[in-house]
Amino acid sequence: MADRDDVALDDPVGESLRGHHAHLARRVGRAATYRPEVSTFSTVSADPGPAEWADLARLLGRGELADMFSSPAAPPPDWEPVFVLEGLQMVWSGSGESETGVVELGADSVPEMLDLVARTRPGPFWPRTRELGAYVGIRDEGALVAMAGERLRPPGWTEISTVCTAPEARGRGHAARLIRGLATRIAARNERPFLHVAETNTPAIALYERLGFKTRGHVTFRGFRVP
């Protein structure tokens, strides 16, 4: 599935935590996850044994969620399954262009960002998630009505995530403007944009394809409860 220049996308969480996001990582042995309120994504090696799952259990804590971005193997049988979500990984091959009306979202915007996420449910977003990368938004009479940002950062790549628009502001092209703006920003630092989307979200997939994204492959997101 992977060319030599996109092999890092096979394990975007692990590659990010070993590289650009190492300062946000927590580790026990070969198991790793993000710091609290940044992200719940966790990772183990491609062929984890019982000891490595035990390390992840110690790292997360009893009863906590092991949010496995694309689980390489099944955990021990006493780890309770919480969710399974089939998705697509898409990479950008479009051309960059600047966008007007797109604003930077800093720490002072976090309460508004959390409120918008609660109303639109684009995926996991926590009080410190914006530390993963740049987040941008669109305001209407001062109110934040749309946003998107950078999430995983494997070498040479940046994921675009948390693309959401308030219900009252949909149909105005806000998501497309934000994605184009972020893709242009990412390409300007000689990295390539990519993203993930639930395979049942056909409207979003159609939008991403119009913006120059192509499907690289399927991914399966899984969550387990630590015993």
Description:
This protein has 227 residues and is of the alpha+beta class. Strands 1-2-3-4-11-5-10-9-8-7-6 form an eleven-stranded mixed beta sheet, sandwiched between helices. Helix 2 links the parallel strand 3 and strand 4. The chain is globular and about 50 Å long.
Spatial strand arrangement across the major sheet: 1-2-3-4-11-5-10-9-8-7-6
Specify the biggest β-sheet: 11 strands, mixed
In DSSP terms, counting alpha (H) and pi (I) runs of 4 or more, how many helices?
Answer: 5
DSSP strand content? 25-35%
How far apart the termini lie comes to 34 Å
General shape: globular
Which SSEs are present, and which pair or pack?
Blueprint: H1 12-18, E1 25-28, E2 31-34, E3 41-43, H2 50-60, E4 65-68, E5 80-92, E6 103-104, H3 110-120, E7 135-140, E8 143-150, E9 157-165, H4 174-188, E10 192-198, H5 202-210, E11 213-225
